[in-house]
Every structure is written in C-alpha cells, then in structure tokens.
Amino acid sequence: MSEKQAPVSETELEVLKVLWDIGSGTVREVNDVLKRRKRRWAYTTVLTLLTRLQTKGYVESDKSTFAHVFRPSVSRDKLLRQRLLGLADELCEGTASPLVHALVQGHRFSLEEIEGFRRLLDELEAESEVEPKNTRRKRRS
Fold first, then answer.
1. What are phi and psi of 72, to 5 degrees?
2. First to last CA, the chain
3. For a tag site, which of 66, 82, 104, 119 has the least CB within 10 Å?
4. 69: burial class by Cβ within 10 Å (0-12, 13-18, 19+)?
5. What are phi and psi of 61, to 5 degrees?
6. 7-21 tens-digit pLDDT
7. How far apart are CA 123 and CA 85, in angstroms?
8. How much is the pTM?
C-alpha cells in the first residue's frame, strides 16, 4: 500500500470491515452480512463499492470462479496506522506524541491493555538504547 493511496469513503469502509471480519467473500456474501448489519444496499451497489476498493488497492479478487471472491489486501492495522500518521501530519506537524496523549487521556483501559502498552513501551525503549545517553529522556517510575 503506497502512502499516496486514495482514501477510503465511509461506505467503502463498511464493506472493507465486512471483508476483515469474514476473510473473503462474493458480492452476495458481503451483501448478506451488510443486510444483517442493517445496511440494505442493492447487489450492484456492493459490487461497485468492492470494485472501487479494488481499484484503490484495498481489495483483491479471485476471478477464476464464476462468482468473484473478494478479500482484503490491506489489514485493519495497516489502514489504522496510515490514517493515524496522516492525522499526526495534518494536526501535529508529524509528531505522534500529542495524538497518543489525546487518545489515552480520559479513557479507561483494562489491566491487560495497560500491560500491553507497557510491553510496547519497553520494546521501544530497548530499541532506543543505542542512542547516546545524554539525548535520551529518563523514564519515570
């Protein structure tokens, strides 16, 4: 996925979320899931959205069978990272720290989530150990 990839519209994102959830599916299968989620779109509308997603590089399709099978070519995490980096560039001059602070402040996290954050911070700190000591900030206990 390139950095300048066309953005995903809200309706395209709904279709992409279905593919992330089910892994892959035909237009009819994707439409059935959308109907269960209270989205009543025509078959041709879902086909158009899948085709747009494919053109933008977010979806691939297997055309070897009668009914084309679509699958995501971009993970949820990758799209999330792309959007957050874009937001950091747009609002924070490319610095992620204010964005992270805004996301964390006022939100209650489970103990498991907090432990996951600690592991990630420890990994990042270990990676930065190669920096000269006088340029690193001390970690608060």
1. -70, 140
2. 39
3. 66
4. middle
5. -140, 150
6. 999 999 999 999 999
7. 20
8. 0.74
